[in-house]
Amino acid sequence: MKQIEAAHPTIDELGRLGIIEFVDQNPHVSMFQRYFVNEVNRCVNMERKINFLENEIFKDKKLAAILERNMYSGVDLFSYDVLQMTEMDLGFNELETRLEELENELKQININAESLQRNYNELIEIQHVLTKDAIFFQEQNLNDDSERKDHSAKSPLLQEDTLVEVQKQGVKLSFVTGVMNTDRIPQFQRVLWRATRGNNFSKDSIIDEPIIDPKTGDEVNKTVFIVFFQGERLEDKIKKICLSFEANLYECPDSSYGRTRLLEKIMGRIMDLNIVIERSREHRKQLLINIVEKIVGWKRKVLKEKSIYHSMNKFDYDVGRKCLIGRGWCPKTGIEEIQVALRAGTTKSGVMVPSVLSVIRPNEEPPTHFETNKYVSAFQQIVNAYGVAKYREVNPAVMTIITFPFLFALMFGDVGHGLMLLAVAVAFIKMEKNLSGKKLNELVQMPFDGRYVLFLMGLFSIYVGFIYNECFAIPMDIFGTSWKQNGKHMVFQNQTYPFGVDPVWKGAPNELEYYNSFKMKISVLFGVIQMTVGIVFSLMNYLNMKGPMKWINIFTQFIPQVVFLWSIFGYMCFLILLKWGSPYDDYILPTIIDMFLSPGSIKTPIYSGQQGVQTILLILAFISVPVMLIPKPLLMKKLYEKEMEAKSHGYHLQGGGGGESGEEEAGEFEEEALEADGHHGDRFEMSDVFVHQVIHTIEFVLGAISNTASYLRLWALSLAHSELSTVFWNRILTAGIYSGPFLAFIAFGAWLGATIGVLLMMETLSAFLHALRLHWVEFNNKSDAKRKEVYKAAKVKAPPDDPNSYVIKYYLDGETKYYINRDFNACLNIVTIAEAYLKGKARPTLLCPFKKDNPEDD
């Protein structure tokens, strides 16, 4: 709660902290009826003027380059950066007046420039009309070969004998001349011929230099035309046709002397007009040069003021006390900083009544807020694209930081290709300061934004490449093979290869069969493990609940889901690991199939007691399905009846609790019922809840099968990547090397191009999308994460290095903190207030001018 006079500086201080998300207190009030709508409209109008100035600057290529460098220099618009004049030199009202003056001046300059350009175009067109008409009237010197008949613009309009015959008959020919767009000439001639029924003679000639359109500034090709005809009625008709084609008609003297004198006058006017246009352009350019260095700062200030008034419109205005009352969310760790900022805003405004901060218990669920940095923000965005965890739920992004690049590496695993991918990521990280904030091409922007994801993907690809023992599809004999050639057969030396696959398998007759078995099994293993981790995340979310729904979800959801998954697919993983450690040669898949089709019979047992174990696991799997399906709707119905009975006695509780705990427990039950579409006020629809539970159970049972099969994409893409790499190496590079040095050079270029284009670009994108799908569909849906609102704090950053600012340095909870302000007296008051408020918890120190012990402590 704050006085209305202190609202603006207080919101400014809170915005610089960037840790508060304000809640709209007037959701049913139109934006046009809010208290500060006039101020917001002023900001919108100023933003429109700034956009107008930017558009004018972008019309000049050199100035546009300067503006883009300032806009995309990697500095946030809301930071106190390069340009410090916005708050010191110009106030908000002065800036509004300045923008109004600049807009009017530029508009007047544009109007004058358009008028001058239109006059200049008319003079240029008249010049060409006079020149071309002189040719049409045979008043130019003809070339030596003019006697031969041609159809160019320099050919005689009428032959000499024809002209004499026309003069004897007393026939007088009239003409109309002008200029028209070149692309309209053919259609114009056809219409003219049909309208006059062929009683005209027309000539045209293209103007060599393009004419600039005064409105758009584009270059337009135009053509001079002249039409000869007889009669006044045809003259009116031809002029109307010319005007319909937007032609510019000009008067041309009949005599050669008149045309010459008019041409001289036109040339003189063109020279004078060129001088005026050039001076007008210089004036406009100088005006824009003065704007281009300041417009980024102006835009920052306007956007900041707009965000401040937009936040103030969310507050509730108390008419009686003349104060604003707002609600918002903030991290608990930021309470101390908010209180200091409130006192700073009160001091800056000069009001006597301080702002009041009260911590209240909210009725709605808080938004989700995860602290991220540039290293993990990309992984958080990957998870948020699927759904945001609810407040105090497990954040799957923590696990995604490792599992996402690892699953990618299982499909892309190769030491050589991983090194190339790692080099690209390292290059982007090295150029981070230069490229941040710049406008990049989409093909560059996407990998640059995910440079740290690429970095981990490259590292894990190298690691998995060592496991697969492949470097550009070539095996690496690092530790020495465990097999020895003995005649035509390979003999095992009774020693295991220390790390990864033995290189002898690469190129062996059964290479494909071995790698298929190996990669298929590890795909299933890691798939079941990741799905289990997702179910464990749901358990952690259930434990976060406080009412009886916690135990209902654990016993009717988590436990039967784990039992079902591990009774079937967990047991299959156990058989895979057991087969790797025992001399068992049969396939595992028939054993799993027979486990369902013939529960009591086993053809070849792997271990003793296998028949009894499989029977017990099969019974557990079948029992877990009705446990997931039936108990939860019945228990929810019972809880509902218990709550209705408590309400009839004047209580609102759940599970025997009261007060705040009881309300939270009831809220959790109501949320579960609402998600099942079974809670309608005072009614509980058992059928809706049961149908929802049936769908959820079927989805999990069928999803457990389909999701496990979906992880086989790890095997398929890994095999495809390896085979493509082998083909490129053997068929392109190796074949070229054996064909001679010249072809070897060409083959290396072709191999490198294929490797970069296919394996590093197409295969990388394919493996990335498949890893994304595995996390969204197979992993995240197991953690029971619901889409929730993300915490969005209004933020205006503090100055990173401003010599005009003063900073208060204090220590709180073992951390060094800073408070920055340009007002020296305000900083002194804050030091006094902080000493009295913190009571020795922090020792504030005023630093003047701005400085820090460690620049990273921003």
TrEMBL record:
Q: Does the keyword Ion transport apply?
A: yes
Q: Which UniProt keywords apply?
A: Coiled coil, Hydrogen ion transport, Ion transport, Membrane, Transmembrane, Transmembrane helix, Transport
GO biological process entries:
vacuolar acidification
Recorded hits in InterPro entries, A to Z, give: V-ATPase_116kDa_su (IPR002490), V-type_ATPase_116kDa_su_euka (IPR026028)
Does the record's keyword annotation contain Membrane?
A: yes
Q: Coiled-coil intervals in this record?
A: 85-126
The principal localisation class reads membrane
Q: Using the UniProt annotation, give all residue ranges assigned to the region (Disordered).
A: 651-671
Q: Give the membrane topology.
A: Multi-pass membrane protein
Q: Name one GO cellular component term.
A: vacuolar proton-transporting V-type ATPase, V0 domain
Report the GO molecular function annotations: ATPase binding; proton-transporting ATPase activity, rotational mechanism
What is its subcellular localisation? Membrane
Question: What ranges does the record list as Acidic residues composition bias?
Answer: 661-671
- Segments traversing the membrane: 406-429, 450-468, 522-543, 555-578, 612-630, 732-760
Provide the family line. Answer: Belongs to the V-ATPase 116 kDa subunit family.
Q: What does this protein do?
A: Essential component of the vacuolar proton pump (V-ATPase), a multimeric enzyme that catalyzes the translocation of protons across the membranes. Required for assembly and activity of the V-ATPase.
Q: What is this protein called?
A: V-type proton ATPase subunit a
Species of the source: Heterostelium pallidum (strain ATCC 26659 / Pp 5 / PN500) (Cellular slime mold)
